[in-house]
Amino acid sequence: MNEVVGRDDLLLVTLDTLRFDVAAELAVEGRIPHLARHLPGGVWEKRHAPGSFTYASHQAMFAGFLPTPATQGPHPRLFAARFAGSETTAGRTFVFDTPDLVSALAGAGYRTVCIGGVGFFNKQGPMGSVLPGLFQESHWEPEFGVASPTSFEAQVRRAEQVVAALPADRRLFLFVNVPSLHQPNWFHLPGATRAAGDSRATHAAALEYVDRHIGRLFAAARSRRRCFAIVCSDHGTAYGDGGFTGHRLGHEAVWTVPYAHFFLEASA
After folding, report:
1. How far is CA 125 from the centre of its chain?
2. Residue 175 and residue 111 in contact, taking contact as beta carbons nearer than 8 Å
3. What separation in angstroms does the CA of 238 have from each of 14, 26, 45, 196, 249?
4. H-helix or E-strand containing 252?
5. Tell me: the pLDDT tens digits for 17-60?
6. Alpha carbon distances (Å) from 62 to 144, 158, 161, 205, 253
7. Residues sharing a CB contact under 8 Å with residue 177, sequence separation 6 or more, in sequence order
8. Which of 47, 140, 216, 221 could lock 116 by a disulfide, CB 3.0 to 4.6 Å apart?
9. Does residue 210 contact residue 163 with C-beta atoms inside 8 Å?
10. CA neighbor of 61 nearest in space, from 49, 46, 52
11. How far apart are CA 62 and CA 179, in angstroms?
């Protein structure tokens, strides 16, 4: 990462609330072709989330604690704050001396941009302003939120505008929090109803919706130069698993998440 930072643009996409099992099934079944073509080997890596809900998980990720591989470690991290005794900081790790990765990248000359989705990014109160406040530039509007059936399309349009407005020589760290998988998601499955509510099937349909549009986001991200992309979930969610519903709880469906990182080669 010490070679990547300062050379390439960076993209972090959190598919908020996406379960690992659903993501893995759809990749194998060929239902998310635009994502799968970038996944190493065409499959998601199984990892453990750093938090069981959005706020906690993103605070950790912005401090350099991305989801951890679901195998025995230690696992060297891509990014880490400098502190004595760290067992996951290695020679390839980008080490920073700021409180968070976002400000470190700003100090390295990046334009840091947040395109929010779920309520923790809506800037409508103090709590919803903390995470977007880490960035030099942040965007949120109701069409980006969880209740919008076209949330991701709207976010992608904003990302395209952000990229187009940036000077060619300025590096970009673009973060997009995708809300489409989060409840409510019933409207992504044809024939589903509000009364019936969300289910594992509507969750899967939401991921298919995201896949239909993510190619445009990737195209924008690589339109200026090569881009290093991280796509992952921040936590999963339960749909009656073991009697549990939702997240912010300690269940396998919540703690296990899909993860991938890869280069998007420059289109020019």
Report:
1. 22
2. no
3. 18, 17, 20, 16, 9
4. helix 252-255
5. 999 999 999 999 999 999 999 999 999 999 999 999 999 999 99
6. 21, 22, 24, 29, 23
7. 14, 16, 54, 58, 114, 115, 116, 117, 118, 121
8. 140
9. no
10. 49
11. 18
